[in-house]
Amino acid sequence: MDLNLILVCVVIAVALFFSYTNGFHDAANAIATSVSTRAWTPRAALLMAAAMNVIGAMMGTAVAKTVGKGIISISDYAESPLPEMQQKGLVIILAALLGACIWNLITWWFGLPSSSSHALIGGMVGAGLMSGTVVYWWGIMSHVVIPMFASPIIGFVVGYVVMRFVLWALRKAQYHRTMRRFRAAQRFSSAAMALGHGIQDAQKTMGIIVMALLAGGYGEHHNILDPVTGEMNVPLWVKVSGALAISLGTMAGGGRIMRTIGRKIIDLDPARGFTAEAVSSSILYLCSYVIHAPISTTQVVSTAIMGVGCTKRFSAVRWGVAGNIVIAWFLTLPAAALVAGIVYLIVALPLGVH
């Protein structure tokens, strides 16, 4: 069998496994708050999140295009008639995926809600640098680094301000009745959060699979590049497979991270849970459809929870846990890049790829 075809199949399989790990790693983002406030039972929440992830994955391709074309350049490998060049491009993508998967598993084991998005992008950068591939530093700065700092700040500030307004507006309302209503409303806000997670995270896997098809010389066969405009098209089977993989991962759970998000940062009531989810999902939609930036759902929801928690009192947030989460965020890009660079060497040398 052709080595290119083998590598393309391996890369697609690993990409879908990454999407699966993304699902159970990030499932907590959408449902932890609603489970902790008993708006959903864990099983019902997982089923809801899995379904909404599938729907979200089918809603657009802007983030997939950013990942597929805006982080590293594979055009030299995709356009080369030499099998060796195509194989090098596929090994770069494979190393990036393995670096992201390994970091996802490490942080999941320790219950740290790190960013699968940044793990993938870090893996792409590490494999790209190790192989001598062109890295689009401005694209990384504008679409990754700036949103990485901006989205958590926005999540915290907006969460705090909106929660303050909610508390003021409902200051004379009967407490228990209000909490029951917010608990019911959380079913919708958590569904919106799960939908946003599908829009963001499933598309990243789609972008990687498209890159693999291009690098392996199968782009024309799948009509990936528009012959007139040069725009990237995502085939339907890529959308469906990415959606199903992240959905299956979501159904697998992610209890370790769910406990960190839902209980260890702060003890949430339904009003604060609803506000955190509503703020987080709004930011996800904005970044998906307006900025086209692959932001971290983990960062947005975690800082929104911290923001609404501070309205109770500043000490209500367990800042030691929050500090560990922030450290994991900053470690993700360089750690995934380092792992991906090592994996590239391990895989490239036996194949004779230089």
Structural commentary:
By secondary structure, this protein is mostly helical. It has one domain (3-349). 78% of the residues lie in helices and 0% in strands. Helix 2 (42-57) packs across helix 8 (175-215) and helix 7 (137-169) packs antiparallel against helix 11. It has 13 helices and no strands.
Write a brief structural summary:
With 354 residues, the protein is mainly α.
Architecture blueprint of SSEs:
Blueprint: H1 3-36, H2 42-57, H3 62-69, H4 75-79, H5 83-109, H6 116-131, H7 137-169, H8 175-215, H9 236-251, H10 255-264, H11 270-291, H12 297-310, H13 319-351
Backbone structural class: mainly alpha
Q: What percentage of residues falls in helices of 4 or more residues?
A: over 70%
Separation, N- and C-terminal Cα atoms: 22 Å
- CA-based shape: elongated
Round the mean pLDDT to the nearest integer and report it.
80
Strand content: under 5%
Radius of gyration: 20 Å
Helices, by number, come to 13
Show unreliable segments: none
Number of domains: 1
Annotation keywords:
elongated; mainly alpha; Low-affinity inorganic phosphate transporter 1; 354 residues
